[in-house]
């Protein structure tokens, strides 16, 4: 009996070794071929952020620096904080995105722009770099637009000589003719792309890049910057908009501290682009109703929370305003729409994309389910802030503005308040009387409804949440009228095609990604589609690996690690080398997952690395050889164990 048990134990040992060999070699492959669970966002191992590595301006006080550091640190981890935990309830939403274009020139003068194309970027100081395409696209776009304009200067022969004092607004002027006139005039000054050091130095010089036009001085007349105009057309193209061939401008009139001239040159009456679209990862299509080419306002310079002056370097910077049509969106879809808008413009090289310096600002319009009350959350420049602001919004709550308690009233209200505080003013205030008369006139004129508030403008405060700042008036209250100093411009289909040819290749849409990889889990592709750089990375990874294996491990293994460590993605060919070690039975998947944080920026041989850690598996032949050697040293007596062996083999 003892002999029989001894033989049986040897056989079991033999089978166990044999089974272990195959399990050790095959279990990783089984995991590789099975669809892994979709983990979504990983919130562990969030690293400490060094504020010195973040973008900040030297003129900021300590409070502003801290605020900026917090916002940038938040945005580094936006995927942890903005995972879209909503209850699928929709809100009627409209989004306005104000984009500073990466043109070397302002919109309607020849001043240098502090949003000039940044074509040389320091990777270690850019919080967005790990998920964006390189600055090469900005260089390509700028050089392409520059060549278009140089060709016009060299080759275009105008039939009539343009005169700035004899523009005929009823007869459009060819863009080529206008550009020829512009570059031959004394107003033109040559500027180009910049590196990071130059741009930082420009940002520190307040009121350095100004002229009478962008400061709104009386008698100064605007003129379109041809280069800035090409950038605006490029924005229309990336959203597949219908582009207007006849381009005109108008004045949007309103009173605000950062707009001393009292109006903004824009395109409310005749937008440059219409009827574009964005496709979300859910498959929902967000319509772009219009895209306007306009100018930015001045920047308020605050010291200890009090506005002291204006920096006109920002005034007149070329803007593209991207406006979505009203649509029922969930909170996570609102956030994704903002991200997609940002990506399409930024990754196509049309903006520097630094949200913390004002290159992108989002206004979110949300409507209550009952009544006409609407709220607009203004000037959101962080995706985390957008997410928090939208989540703070309560559709059932009525947000109202109380001008008496408002700390930053209009200029007229400030003057009225000052008069009231003046002890010598014992009688009625003249300014207050003027204001009341003016308001009564507005109420009694036929179009008085234009000045009836339709909602409330809000700002988001990280300590107080959503705060009302002023009443929101209808769009027709701004008294838009035709800008007489700028000619109507005609752009031909050929010019639009030349502009389009300067843009990078089109970013893949979700539909094309699903069509290209029908065998891959749809949820994995939706996650990959969130960023164009991820889509491009995945495409390259699929040239080395099966598309399903690539998707599973890119989404579930590599991306969570990159997000939690804030490191750059390792090259796709290097990541494929790691996965092939598992596919070729040389490494366990669990060991790869454990060691991957140390390998993101590792440049040596992966095989040697795992061999030094004693983690590299023997191949199948070598494992069989080891088992054979063991069995030779411990031979089995077949005559004593044949029945056990036969029975065991039958089971197998």
Automatic annotation (TrEMBL):
Asked whether the keyword Transferase is assigned, the reply is yes
- Could you list this entry's UniProt keywords, alphabetically sorted: ATP-binding, Ligase, Nucleotide-binding, Protein biosynthesis, Transferase
Q: Where is the Aspartyl/Glutamyl-tRNA(Gln) amidotransferase subunit B/E catalytic domain?
A: 203-496
Keyword Plastid set for record: no
Where do the TM regions start and end?
none
> Which GO cellular component does the record give, naming just one?
mitochondrion
Protein name as annotated: Aspartyl/glutamyl-trna amido transferase, putative
């Amino acid at each position: 009996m003892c002999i029989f048990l001894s033989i049986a134990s040897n056989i079991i040992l033999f089978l166990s070794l044999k089974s272990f060999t195959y399990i050790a070699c095959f279990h990783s492959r089984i995991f590789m071929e099975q669809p892994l669970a979709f983990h979504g966002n990983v919130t562990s191992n969030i690293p400490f952020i060094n504020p010195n590595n973040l973008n900040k301006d030297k003129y900021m006080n300590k409070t502003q620096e801290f605020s900026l550091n917090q916002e940038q640190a938040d945005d580094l981890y936006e995927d942890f904080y903005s995972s879209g935990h909503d209850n699928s309830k929709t809100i009627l939403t409209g989004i306005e995105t104000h984009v500073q274009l990466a043109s070397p020139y302002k919109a309607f003068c020849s001043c240098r722009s502090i949003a000039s194309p940044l074509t040389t970027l320091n990777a270690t100081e850019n919080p967005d770099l790990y998920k964006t395409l390189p600055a090469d696209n900005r260089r390509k776009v700028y050089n392409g637009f520059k060549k278009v304009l140089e060709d016009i200067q060299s080759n275009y022969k105008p039939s009539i000589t343009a005169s700035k004092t004899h523009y005929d607004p009823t007869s459009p002027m060819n863009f080529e003719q206008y550009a020829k006139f512009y570059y031959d005039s004394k107003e033109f000054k040559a500027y180009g792309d910049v590196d990071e050091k130059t741009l930082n130095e420009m940002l520190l010089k307040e009121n350095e890049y100004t002229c009478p036009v962008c400061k709104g001085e009386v008698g100064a007349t605007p003129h379109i910057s041809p280069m800035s105009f090409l950038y605006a057309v490029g924005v229309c193209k990336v959203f597949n908009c219908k582009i207007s061939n006849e381009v005109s401008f108008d004045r949007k009139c309103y009173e605000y501290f950062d707009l001393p001239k009292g109006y903004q040159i824009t395109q409310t009456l005749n937008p440059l682009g219409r009827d574009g679209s964005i496709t979300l990862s859910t498959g929902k299509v967000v319509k772009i109703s219009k895209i306007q080419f306009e100018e930015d306002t001045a920047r308020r310079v605050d010291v200890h929370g009090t506005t002291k002056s204006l920096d006109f370097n920002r005034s007149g910077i070329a803007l593209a305003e991207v406006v979505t049509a009203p649509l029922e969106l969930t909170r996570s879809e609102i956030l994704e729409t903002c991200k997609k808008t940002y990506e399409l413009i930024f990754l196509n090289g049309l903006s520097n994309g630094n949200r913390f310096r004002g290159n992108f600002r989002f206004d979110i319009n949300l409507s209550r389910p009952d009544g006409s009350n609407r709220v607009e959350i203004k000037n959101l420049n962080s995706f985390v802030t957008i997410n928090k602001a939208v989540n703070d919004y309560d559709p059932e709550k009525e947000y109202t503005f109380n001008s008496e308690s408002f700390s930053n009233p209009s200029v007229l209200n400030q003057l009225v308040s000052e008069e009231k505080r003046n002890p010598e003013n014992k009688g009625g205030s003249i300014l207050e009387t003027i204001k009341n008369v003016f308001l009564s006139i507005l109420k009694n004129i036929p179009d008085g409804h234009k000045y009836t508030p339709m909602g409330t403008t809000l700002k988001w405060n990280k300590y107080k949440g959503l705060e009302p700042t002023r009443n929101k008036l209808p769009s027709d209250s701004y008294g838009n009228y035709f800008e007489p100093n700028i000619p109507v411009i005609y752009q031909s289909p050929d010019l639009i095609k030349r502009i389009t040819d300067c843009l990078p290749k089109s970013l893949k849409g979700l539909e094309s990604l699903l069509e290209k990889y029908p065998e891959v889990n749809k949820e994995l592709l939706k996650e990959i589609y969130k960023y164009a750089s991820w889509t491009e990375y995945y495409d390259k990874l699929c040239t080395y690996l099966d598309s399903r294996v690539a998707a599973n491990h890119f989404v579930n293994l590599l991306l969570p690690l990159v997000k939690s460590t804030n490191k750059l993605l390792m090259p796709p060919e290097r990541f494929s080398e790691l996965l092939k070690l598992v596919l070729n039975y040389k490494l366990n998947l669990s060991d790869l997952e454990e060691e991957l944080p140390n390998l993101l920026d590792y440049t040596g041989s992966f095989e040697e690395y795992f061999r030094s850690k004693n983690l590299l598996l023997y191949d199948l032949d070598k494992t069989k050889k080891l088992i054979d050697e063991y069995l030779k040293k411990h031979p089995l007596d077949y005559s004593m164990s044949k029945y056990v062996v036969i029975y065991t083999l039958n089971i197998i």
